[in-house]
């Protein structure tokens, strides 16, 4: 009679659908592995996505303000630079919030079961790179290195790319026309608000 050693049953510990990352780990992961944040499943990083959007708006305001300080001297430059910066921030904030709400509405209208948080998470993850580029442009601007305009311009371009990608991948998958309409709507809304203010 041979005895077989008892094998212990290994219980599989169910993995949580989201890894617990702090905000700085999240930023690093969105740069190192951005595709991980663009899947169909909800990772639970909506708050970080919203933080990225708010950070982006703050950086747009601050970057523009620094640019105005460097460009203008004389009486009233501080107030003028500050007000122009706020104007630009509002011009981006309203269309950004509006485009997320409209993405959710259009996706749900066409049979998707996603919510606004889903789009905040996706768009926020893609806005990490524009934030980093704006952060890099600020000291370059203060040092009067003209390379700062390259960083600021490409950061704004990545905002448009992010909106287009989210629309193309998740709002109306593989529909170039709808993604283009969302992108153009965002751009013209931003320009119109900036013109009005």
Largest sheet, in brief, is:
none
Q: Which strand-content bin applies to the residues?
A: under 5%
Distance between the termini: 90 Å
Cα-based radius of gyration, to the nearest Å:
22 Å
Principal-axes shape call? globular
**Total strand count, please?**
0
Helix and strand element order: HHHHHHH
Name the average pLDDT. 85
Class from helix and strand fractions:
mainly alpha
Number of domains: 1
The helix fraction, in percent, is: over 70%
Number of helix segments? 7
| Low-confidence runs of at least 5 consecutive residues | 8-18
Structure write-up:
It comes from Evansella tamaricis. Keywords: Membrane, Transmembrane, Transmembrane helix. Helices cover about 70% and strands about 0% of the residues. The longest helix is centred in the middle third of the chain and has 33 residues, at about 75-110. The protein is an all-alpha fold. It starts with about 20 loop residues before the first helix and ends with a helix. The chain has one domain (about 45-195). The protein has seven helices and no strands.
Keywords:
197 residues; mainly alpha; 7 helices
What is the topology?
Blueprint: H1 23-32, H2 46-71, H3 77-109, H4 116-126, H5 128-142, H6 148-171, H7 176-196
Helix pairs in contact: 2-3, 2-4, 2-5, 3-4, 3-6, 3-7, 4-6, 5-6, 6-7
In short:
It contains 7 helices and no strands.
């Amino acid at each position: 009679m041979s005895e077989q050693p008892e094998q212990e049953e290994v219980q599989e510990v169910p993995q949580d659908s989201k890894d617990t990352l702090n905000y700085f780990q999240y930023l690093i992961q969105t740069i190192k592995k951005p595709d991980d944040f663009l899947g169909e499943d909800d990772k639970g990083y909506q708050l970080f996505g919203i933080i990225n959007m708010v950070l982006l708006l703050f950086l747009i305001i601050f970057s523009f303000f620094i640019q105005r300080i460097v460009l203008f001297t004389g009486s009233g430059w501080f107030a003028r630079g500050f007000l122009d910066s706020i104007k630009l921030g509002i011009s981006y904030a309203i269309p950004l919030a509006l485009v997320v709400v409209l993405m959710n509405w259009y996706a749900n209208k066409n049979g998707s079961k996603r919510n606004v948080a889903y789009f905040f998470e996706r768009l926020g993850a893609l806005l990490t790179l524009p934030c980093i580029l704006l952060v890099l442009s600020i000291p370059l601007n203060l040092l009067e290195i003209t390379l700062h305009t390259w960083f600021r311009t490409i950061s704004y371009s990545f905002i448009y790319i992010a909106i287009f990608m989210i629309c193309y991948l998740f709002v109306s998958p593989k529909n170039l026309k709808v993604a283009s309409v969302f992108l153009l709507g965002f751009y013209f809304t931003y320009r119109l608000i900036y013109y009005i203010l």
